[in-house]
Design brief:
With 648 residues, the protein is α+β, with helices and mostly antiparallel strands. The protein folds into five domains: 87 residues, DNA Primase, Chain A (Alpha-Beta Complex); 134 residues, DNA primase DNAg catalytic core, N-terminal domain (Alpha-Beta Complex), CATH 3.90.980.10; 126 residues, Dna Topoisomerase Vi A Subunit, Chain: A, domain 2, CATH 3.40.1360.10; 54 residues, no CATH class; 190 residues, no CATH class. It has 27 helices and 20 strands. The strands form six sheets. Strands 1-2-3-4-5 form a five-stranded antiparallel sheet. Strands 13-12-14-15-16 form a five-stranded mixed sheet. Strands 6-9-10-11 form a four-stranded antiparallel sheet, with helices on one face. Strand 12, helix 10 and strand 13 form a beta-alpha-beta unit. Helix 13 crosses helix 14.
């Protein structure tokens, strides 16, 4: 990705018409200044999918899909980023730039792409081999029938059978000694000391013994979101350990990031607006066979933040399904901890605990899909599970029990972003603990208004003054800087007086709102005063980091639109963090429609800081003239903001 210059991508997006790119796959109709159609990423009867030719951006208000022309090709066709850029460049008659300095890097990248393609090729060959062996194995077929699986379900998920042979894959790979088989995780290699070789370190290693990783097992091909095979899972037919065996970590397969069945379940997940996460391959297949298709499974590992983040890209709600035993409770707790930082008012997580004698596979076979769907409907919201977990085993009718609950809650609730959800959870917890909400918040040390002050320089880059400079051959231009029209002299004076003083972080909800708008409409950056700029860049992550990046980016690309900004975020590796703020929902709106909201959020951030700073000054007694002057200057700015805010 980094080998393609950002300037080239921006020029490409200026030349390509996103309406033409999307229009090849979606029937679009003019709707005012934009175009509308049925979303290609989820099934719908009324069009909620819009394409903006002015912003060169698409967004679906039904499922949340969004992006540039590059992003559309990636999501709709499964192309990687370089291939999508290359395809659009070819259509636009543009040639990808070649830099001599990057020759070695480009050569290594090409070699890596070729190597990964070879890994995928051998995995596909192995998958065909396993499927053929399944058809030739009555014992394996009988096992699947005994589990209630139909031939259609087995075919849909590509199930196969690895024969009970130490080197069964030699039948399809005549060069069984090839390193690529080790690197793909299909074959296990051991050195002279009997140690198993890591697939990533197999190149050039001396292998004393090699054999098939999967033997006498039902095989489950594991696909990425684009449908490419990246590994295999295997289950024993009879008794044996381990019951399940997955491919090792390879260049293609990272089990902490991938989900079994996601490729097959994508459309159903988008259609339901919900993803159901279970623990086993056969649970996924059995549920899908009975019509519950929006199901995925983790790959023999606890749920991770990467899993949650990936699912939230497809839907706003996740339901985790676990056994009702102690192990299931532990797994649910880990899933909750992975989910907390990613939650918001428009995202939710629930927990479904089945009776101890059942897993999803056995439950749906015994009771049917309707009964299982009813169980999903009764799943516990994360807020309830969280509060139950905090109170578990504690005597909340005692001061000691309540104190222990607060201690447990401190780390967990601290991971939640400031939101209506967090406020509701705190309110309910306060009721359970019979403690005033304000007192509980103070005890938990939550909320921007109660955070310990800290130097602004620790979180923000130094403030840059606005300057004018003459650019040879380019006329006069104003270099980008935080100072913009309407900044307010009183506010600037207060900022100058307090520059060496301690600043607290702004309220997280106001800061997130402000940055969400700025990412959707970077042309509104001029609304940010110097004081507000310093507070915004000092905000909690990801807001502070994104604000500093946005300032730097707009310094070089002052007139960038949403499409170019989106791809710049992708190249910088910040797109996932930006998407957490959900700015895509605002791109279709005109800047004037969100301008007042931005001013309100920025004004609220600055007002909160001014009040805190005045309190700090008052506590010193205002004995020094500089302190009195600063206090008066802050008061002028506060009155100015208070006059404006009621209108916003």
């Amino acid at each position: 990705m980094s080998l393609i210059p950002q300037d080239f991508i921006e020029e490409l997006l200026r030349r390509v018409d996103i309406v033409d790119v999307v229009g090849r796959s979606v029937q679009l109709k003019k709707a005012g200044t934009n175009y509308k159609g049925l979303c290609p990423f989820h099934q719908e009867k009324s069009p909620s999918f819009t394409v903006s030719p002015s912003k060169q951006f698409y967004h679906c208000f039904g499922c949340g899909a969004h992006g540039s022309a590059v992003g559309f090709l990636m999501e709709h066709t499964g192309m990687g980023f370089p291939d999508a850029v290359r395809e659009l460049a070819r259509e636009a008659g543009m040639e990808l730039p070649q830099h001599e300095a990057d020759e070695a890097t480009a050569r290594r990248a090409a070699e890596q792409r070729s190597h990964k393609a070879r890994l995928r090729e051998v995995l596909e060959q192995a998958e065909r081999f396993y499927r053929d062996r399944l058809r030739a194995s009555p014992r394996a077929i009988d096992y699947l029938k005994g589990r209630g699986l139909s031939g259609r379900a087995a075919a849909r998920f590509g199930l196969g059978y690895a024969p009970d042979d130490w080197q069964g894959l030699a039948a399809v790979f005549p060069n069984y000694d090839a390193e690529v088989l080790l690197q793909a995780g299909l074959v296990v290699g051991r050195d002279a000391q009997g140690q198993t070789l890591d697939p990533a370190q197999a190149a050039g290693a001396t292998v004393s013994r090699r054999y098939d990783r999967l033997r006498d097992r039902i095989t489950f091909p594991i696909r990425n979101a684009q449908g490419e095979i990246i590994g295999f899972g295997g289950r024993v037919l009879d008794r044996g350990e381990p019951k399940y065996l997955n491919s090792p970590e390879t260049e293609l397969f990272h089990k902490g990031e991938e989900l079994y069945g996601l490729f097959e379940a994508r459309q159903a997940i988008q259609r339901h607006g919900q993803a159901l996460v279970v623990e086993g391959y056969l649970d996924v297949i059995a549920l899908a066979q009975h019509g519950v298709e929006h199901v995925v499974a983790t790959l023999g590992t606890a749920c991770t933040a990467d899993h949650v983040r990936k699912l939230f890209r497809h839907c706003p709600q996740i339901v985790f399904c676990f056994d009702g035993d102690t192990a299931g409770q532990r797994a649910a707790t880990r899933a909750m901890e992975a989910s907390l930082p990613l939650l918001g008012d428009e995202r939710s997580v629930k927990f479904l605990f089945l009776p101890v004698e059942h897993d999803p596979d056995s439950y749906v076979r015994q009771h049917g899909a309707d009964a299982f769907e009813r169980e999903i409907g009764r799943a516990r919201p994360l807020s309830v599970f969280l509060l139950d977990t905090l109170a578990d085993g504690l005597a909340l009718d005692t001061a000691e029990g309540r104190a222990q609950a607060i201690a447990r809650a401190r780390n967990l609730l601290g991971q939640l972003a400031e939101s209506a959800l967090k406020g509701q959870i705190l309110r309910e917890m306060a009721q359970r603990l019979q403690t005033p909400a304000d007192e509980l918040r103070e005890a938990l040390a939550l909320g921007g208004e109660r955070r310990a002050a800290r130097p602004a320089a620790a979180a923000a880059e130094p403030q840059r003054a606005a300057t004018r400079e003459r650019v040879p051959g380019d006329g006069s231009r104003e270099r980008f800087a935080p100072r913009r029209a309407g900044a307010g002299r009183a506010g600037d004076a207060a900022l100058g007086a307090a520059r060496s003083q301690r600043l607290s972080r702004p309220r997280a909800d106001h800061a997130r709102t402000a940055l969400r708008i700025l990412l959707a409409h970077p042309e509104l950056w001029h609304e940010v005063s110097p004081a507000q700029h310093e507070l915004l860049t000092a905000a909690q992550q990801p807001v502070g980091e994104l604000a500093r990046w946005l300032e730097s980016y707009l310094d070089e690309h002052e007139h960038a639109n949403a499409s170019a900004l989106w791809e710049a975020l992708r190249s910088a590796g910040l797109l996932p963090a930006a998407e957490e703020l959900q700015p895509a929902e605002l791109v279709e709106l005109d800047a004037e429609q969100v301008q007042q909201d931005l001013r309100g959020a920025l004004g609220s951030i600055e007002m909160a800081w001014i009040k805190q700073r005045q309190q700090q000054l008052a506590e010193t007694g205002l004995g020094e003239q500089t302190a009195r002057l600063e206090y008066q200057s802050l008061s002028l700015r506060l009155r100015e903001l208070m006059r404006k805010l009621p209108r916003l």
